[in-house]
Amino acid sequence: MNEDFWSSRDWIKYGEAKTKAATDYLREKGLLSVYDKLIDCSISSEIEVISDITIDGRPAGANLSDLLYISKMRYMHGIMCTFPDYQPIGMAHEGMLLKDYFAEGNVLPRFSIDDGVVVVLKDGIDYPESFKLTIRILIHAVDYSKKPWNTGKEEYYDKVLQGVMEINNN
């Protein structure tokens, strides 16, 4: 997509209108608007965190999403909303389980290392020296190629977001 696509005034108005309730909620807390902090899609099922080996007595392939939590987060990225109406349901916080942050039915938050969100493994577990974790998030997203801000109609597609992390406890 070209630059004109993302700088379109119609696209900006579309985003602002969709996220008005969330933006109002944040302004009440003294924060800024939200339309560029959320992604136009929902989380379709519980986040999956799968190890390639046994961890804490759980076999490889078992969902370990209850073993990861947020240890650091910038407040501005903590809003949690329902989809597709962007009604605020609260703020994420440090110490929150990753599976609760990425809960089914919520809007997918913008989440990257550059945004200041740090995820860590739960303490008190004897982790192997090294292992791989695969994280999968199923989403149901608005198809922006159909330009819903011009058509007034949202069309969707489903996708799996997936990443692999190698953990070394040396």
The profile of the biggest β sheet is: 5 strands, antiparallel
Proportion of β residues? 25-35%
Contiguous helical run count: 5
- Decide which structural class fits the backbone: alpha+beta
Rounded mean pLDDT is 85
What is the 3D form? globular
Rg, nearest Å: 18 Å
Q: What's the multimeric state?
A: single chain
- Gap from first CA to last CA: 43 Å
Low-confidence stretches: none
What share of residues is helical? 10-25%
Please render the helix and strand layout as text.
Elements lengths: L2 H5 L1 H10 L1 H9 L9 E6 L4 E4 L16 E5 L6 E3 L6 E4 L6 H4 L5 E3 L8 E4 L8 E13 L5 H4 L4 E13 L2
Antiparallel strand pairs: 1-6, 1-8, 2-8, 3-7, 4-5, 8-9
Describe this structure in words.
The chain has five helices and nine strands; from the N terminus they run αααβββββαβββαβ. The protein is of the alpha+beta class and 170 residues long. Strands 1, 2, 6, 8 and 9 form a five-stranded antiparallel sheet that branches. The longest helix is centred in the first third of the chain and has 10 residues. The model has no long low-confidence stretch (mean pLDDT 85).
The gist of it:
Helix content is 19%, strand content 32%.
Features:
170 residues, alpha+beta, 5-stranded antiparallel β-sheet, two-stranded antiparallel sheet, 5 helices, globular
